[in-house]
Amino acid sequence: MYLALTDEQQFLIEAAQGTLARHDTLEGARSALDGAPGPALWQTAAEAGWTGLLIGEDADGAGLGAYEALLVVEQCGRVLADARLLGHLAATALLEQAGADATLRGALATGERRAALVDAAAGERSAPVQARRAGTQMVFDGRVRSVLDVPDADVLVIVGRDADGACVAGVVDADADGITVTAERAYDATRLVGTVRLESVGATALAIPADRTRDGADLQRALLAAESVGAADACLELSRSYAIDRFAFGRAIGSYQAIKHKLVEMLRRIEGARSLVVHAGRTWDDDRAAFALAANAARVVAADALDYCAPETIFVHGGVGATWEHDASLYYRRAELARRLAGGATVAAAAVAAVLLDEAHLRTQRPDTVSALSVG
Amino acid sequence: MYLALTDEQQFLIEAAQGTLARHDTLEGARSALDGAPGPALWQTAAEAGWTGLLIGEDADGAGLGAYEALLVVEQCGRVLADARLLGHLAATALLEQAGADATLRGALATGERRAALVDAAAGERSAPVQARRAGTQMVFDGRVRSVLDVPDADVLVIVGRDADGACVAGVVDADADGITVTAERAYDATRLVGTVRLESVGATALAIPADRTRDGADLQRALLAAESVGAADACLELSRSYAIDRFAFGRAIGSYQAIKHKLVEMLRRIEGARSLVVHAGRTWDDDRAAFALAANAARVVAADALDYCAPETIFVHGGVGATWEHDASLYYRRAELARRLAGGATVAAAAVAAVLLDEAHLRTQRPDTVSALSVG
Amino acid sequence: MSSSGPENLDAFRAQLRDWLDANAEHAPRRQVLAPQDDAAVGRWRGWQARLADAGYAGITWPGAYGGSDGTPAQRVAVEQELTARGLSGVFDFIGIEMVGPTILVHGTEEQRDRYVHPLLRGDETWCQLLSEPGAGSDLAAVQSRARLQDDGSWVVNGQKVWTSFAQHAAFGILLARTDTEVAKHKGLSMFVVPMDAEGVTIRPLRQITGDAEFNEVFLDDVRLARDSIIGAPGEGWRVALTMLGFERVGVGSGLHATPLDRLVAAVHASEDRDDAGVRVRLGQVASELLALRHTSERVVEEIAEGHVPGPEAGLIKITSVTASLAACRLAVDVAGPEALVDDEWGHQVSALPGVRSAGGTEEILRNLIGERVLGLPPEPRVPTKAA
Amino acid sequence: MSSSGPENLDAFRAQLRDWLDANAEHAPRRQVLAPQDDAAVGRWRGWQARLADAGYAGITWPGAYGGSDGTPAQRVAVEQELTARGLSGVFDFIGIEMVGPTILVHGTEEQRDRYVHPLLRGDETWCQLLSEPGAGSDLAAVQSRARLQDDGSWVVNGQKVWTSFAQHAAFGILLARTDTEVAKHKGLSMFVVPMDAEGVTIRPLRQITGDAEFNEVFLDDVRLARDSIIGAPGEGWRVALTMLGFERVGVGSGLHATPLDRLVAAVHASEDRDDAGVRVRLGQVASELLALRHTSERVVEEIAEGHVPGPEAGLIKITSVTASLAACRLAVDVAGPEALVDDEWGHQVSALPGVRSAGGTEEILRNLIGERVLGLPPEPRVPTKAA
Fold this sequence. Notes:
heterotetramer; A: 7-stranded mixed β-sheet; C: 11 helices; 13% strand; globular
């Protein structure tokens, strides 16, 4: 509902739906649980131009903004397609911002190579990745768990903290000395996550202002939010169809308030989350300083929306919803893992509070500061 | 439901209901909001023998246990009667445990004098009350906010921490030097709460083992839990009657699942809370070391139960539930204030975690320790 | 003001800002709930007249009746600029959002001439006489009777509840039963009632806050002129649906929720500022409030583009109440129980439960959205009978 | 064992403890869900036989059929002592808790002699053939047909779902329609089906965990002997109600929820042990688990005192699932997402959503309790027609 998209955005969505429809991604998600290889979506993403969405036209990218990336990823989430875009898009956003080497960006834009983001900020509880400067290089040490899309990635963008506590970023080939990537088993088998160990890894420093190095991690959270909105919406659609078709005690079960109100609650949560995803998409281009708040808030509300919709979809379906063969179980697996990735939804909530309290603190120091929040 | 009471306990409940029915406590709660004096229930409590429930028969008390006190207070909660028992019973429990002066206990048992408990543990966020020994006396310094029943109390039982961090208790007349009590305005006008300031207050030391000095605060939380169960049960009864009598769109509203399932949810929460109140009552006599866990868990679940039942009772009633004249609003005021008293339900949850994690810690030190929790 | 387009809107907004710079001193500050004292109400009505005279009230209404022939986008711009400055809009939102548009649609030319312009300026304010003790959300069950007299006038008897601002209103818009022989919703008609007519008694109904935001209104043999009916006899249900449709469009509630900056300031000022649990809770509540704000903005954009939002816009009300209540409760938790009796948070804690049922219970709203938006089948019908 | 009273109970318990000291080595450990491998099942069935031979299964059943003529309090004592040691009880709880008592009530003398004792020992285990794809919670809508043959035997066709342990069962208890000319619930009858009969096909139904806890059972022209009917033809609904009543008494679920000590150990072992927010969450979840435990204990006490708990005991199941799920989710949150794929927590995260709908959806349970316990009016009836 509440659509306010440009024609180009609408076209992007429809093209994504068409592209994804060529794969049976749900059956792929199920068979992957039994060890079968999932559908090879990376090539599809490359052909559709998604791999280069955030890379400039100077390097064969589409030169689009986060909003378009979020719209594509929402469609992927709807059918549980994982094209390894969450790591790649977050990493390429930082490379683009740093104006990194055009050859590298070109290879990433066309999908010839695949990138992932290694940022301990994605898991606030981990010890931060340590960074020190050595000539023109940054040297990184540390260990980060459950990094999205990192197994088999070709290029790593690493974010760490230097001795002064400032955030710095670097880029390095994934097979460079000192990098060990171990794949983790994932509850949602569409996912590719791994633990990264960095031992004196020398990387090319990226020229990004300190207050913008977290944009990659925040973008990854916004992408997770968009994906969750898509998945939650698919849950609502599954539930809606079943509630109309299934009869119990002489009536369609959707005529009972218990079911009907539950579905409306799904809709309410999805609409709230979607509003924040849209808002995050817009701030990326229009007001980057506000992006962190928007992205983390989107992450919180979207994770809660999917967290509600996925298990309730099982319950609406009664016993059949809890069977292996039913798609509801796949969305449930998606929900349970997704809310814990990139540091988890709780860390995103803490990040929202941190932005707001830091701003309040500044206001008490300089009472004349006008806050974006004073509106409303 | 699930009654498993002795005949004596059943009699105590019925007697309490009869006694309380002689006052229009709900109308009293409403008119108190406009500044009218509430019903004078202290005398009633004294005549019913409730003031001496926890005081030994050697000092004219009933010599009963916490279970009986909880049952009486549950009945008070049901009709929003506040007889100032929460401060008095918690304070007298510590005096009884210490074998304090029989004359003092006798005056408290008969209701001639009224006691209150001043324990900063009731509000974990407050700085603790400082205690030091001076001869046979304890000297207390500190400030505690929102102390139950402390305005106009005659006797204060104070719990503080000495320089070693150990809990110690003392008793003192409320008009002693160095004590300042300021009444606070209360959202639920049946309540009497105040801020206590202690400046070098000399008090008679109470001989209570350090690990039992918190029993008073824990008992107060259990009493709040019992009271909340009574209030929540009354909310369910209000809602139930209305749901049966009120028709909308040609049907009693209780026939709609949205209303029916809400009322069943009230029942579910109330029964869970009641089980913990019963359990807390039993452990007081049977297994005092387990009382802290039981009392704080009861507090958490009962606060949540009332927190659910009171506003939902307003909503079940539609617009009329939100009017000044309707009793639902009085239970809502009770819920909002009660969950924040004695440190608040969140502090009780933290206390539950502390008990469990401390025990887990001990188990890792001495793996052969058998935990009460290993059952089930 | 009749042409639209972004350039025109920028010019409109610039002009509006200049006007506000010059006139804001006359505006009452925006408050969560309207104050009940007469002086404050008088000042607020004066501000409405000033807005109307400058063309900033009834923006989309026809110029012939005092409106500005403007666009929905301009209406939204006024709302945004007022909100940004923390200023109130019109006093009589019932008149402006619901009664005025309804009279414009269903009223006679004489009725439009008589009522619309004084309504717009706040010279005559309005109240709704719809709900009854036995018919809250279920308006088709209305029992108030209007009996046609031989001279074409009507005599009304009945009781209404949940009437906001009845004590200030010049007129009420009344739903009454004119025919008991037909199916429930077919026997209703809509009337204009002068609130000073003989037989009208207003009894304030106190809310949990202690304020009397609503009233009960008793109608005892109230005589109404022949031309006081809006639409034809028996068309009352259709007129009421039109009016409730306008209520839904009067979104706004999402923009009027608990201000996030005040919640953040409350946590910042408290001892719990650095408590990990409190920070996560703040982040969750703040995210909900932000979701609410941006959902409201999305709906406002829709309207600005000329779309009429679907019933799902009603979900904003649910989120508004739940998120605002969560915000208030967090603020009280960090400030301590005494905050329950202050004006900043305590008043809202008392007011919000009543807001949830205002304009129909949440259950009715969820039924409506489940059936109209999600296409779920209705409950089985229980045979209805006329009262 | 026929006399009761506390002294007798103490003696009973002492004797039981001695017996457990000597026999516990043969008992499988208590687990949240039953294992599916044949060796484990065999061992568990052996333990059931041992319990039965010692008089610790079917305690309240008549001695004539292998029971112990004992009291409900003794039955509770056995449950408590097993739980305290972390030991499993009987393997075939469907047989012991539901089928056995139903045959004792509605079966013929011949049926009791034939079925009850092997059932008690676990020599022959049982499954339920009640739910169907089109009749989950709504059993009266069962479509499986049993047609009477000229020789008095029956031929059954149909499909059943949610059948636990069908692959191990010697017999199933089957609800089928024997008369399509009467109102829905009047045309049903209950039968005993040998699971190795020709025409019976068992298809495992995998759950989210990946395990096949349930099965679909297809019945194609399955011929049943004349004496396989339990009760009279057309009495199936009454027999089913009796059986579901016994199910409700088989409380237990609250005692089998996520073990609190393991949750506490998980938090204690994590980096988040000192995080204020995590501690509050642990306190809340732990309090819910404790409420669940003590509510279960209260119901068990009721039973021990000879009362039959009301339908509200079913609420324990709801709390059990919600509190257990909250506990598992907290444990995974502190341990990290990899814990989702381990056996300790991940298996439960997968299993619990299915438990919630097992034995009827939560909506049905809430309707039942709302109507039977709170006395709320039922939904309006939709006219039913026979299949």
